[in-house]
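hiii so um. not sure if this is the right channel but i have a protein structure encoded as tokens and i wanna go backwards to a sequence. like what aa goes where. can anyone help
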């Protein structure tokens, strides 16, 4: 209950205060390339329930696109504005909507797409999906430049499945063990510091 109240007390005023910036981002996305402002992708949330996450669109819009679900380095699909949004993590601000809706928390394990959740070991799956997914967590801070890391691999998909994903799951399990408002405060501060220094 305290964690949910913490989310609402920050996400609600946050959306109001950031409204001018969010409108500017939305306008930039629309002017930069044809397509919707938001990118809505199915992710797996608390209890294994699927939901559609909000992100400002950073790639060219292709209805029915079945391209790679991981982004590697300078992906040709990334727009000019999208590159800036990704580098600054501003595309993630749209997830404040998901926090208000209750499908996400400010801090929690990053929600994955169903195909990768299917790879979770059973015990870790149950543990990680026992809490609301979040905008940031230990893994988000440690792997904030994941695309560049995968770009160095000859087989990015395999590297993600066999190296990156297990490491992220261990960090997400650690978050579940330490879940609480004070942990969230520290992680939000770490995230802001990491973004500012990038």
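sure thing!! here u go:
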């Amino acid at each position: 209950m305290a964690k949910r109240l913490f989310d609402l007390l920050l996400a609600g005023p946050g959306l109001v205060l950031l409204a001018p910036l969010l409108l500017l981002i939305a306008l930039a996305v629309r002017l930069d390339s044809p397509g919707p402002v938001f990118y809505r992708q199915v992710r797996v949330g608390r209890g294994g329930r699927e939901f559609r996450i909000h992100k400002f669109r950073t790639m060219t819009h292709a209805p029915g696109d079945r391209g790679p679900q991981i982004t590697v380095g300078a992906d040709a699909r990334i727009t000019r504005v999208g590159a800036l949004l990704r580098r600054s993590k501003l595309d993630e601000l749209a997830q404040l909507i998901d926090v208000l809706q209750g499908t996400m928390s400010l801090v929690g394990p990053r929600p994955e797409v169903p195909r990768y959740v299917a790879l979770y070991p059973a015990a870790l799956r149950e543990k990680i999906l026992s809490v609301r997914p979040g905008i940031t967590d230990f893994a988000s801070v440690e792997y904030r430049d994941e695309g560049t890391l995968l770009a160095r691999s000859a087989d990015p998909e395999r590297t993600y499945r066999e190296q990156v994903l297990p490491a992220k799951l261990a960090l997400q399990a650690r978050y579940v063990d330490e879940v609480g408002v004070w942990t969230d405060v520290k992680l939000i501060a770490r995230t802001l510091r990491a973004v500012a220094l990038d």
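oh and The two ends are 34 Å apart (CA to CA).
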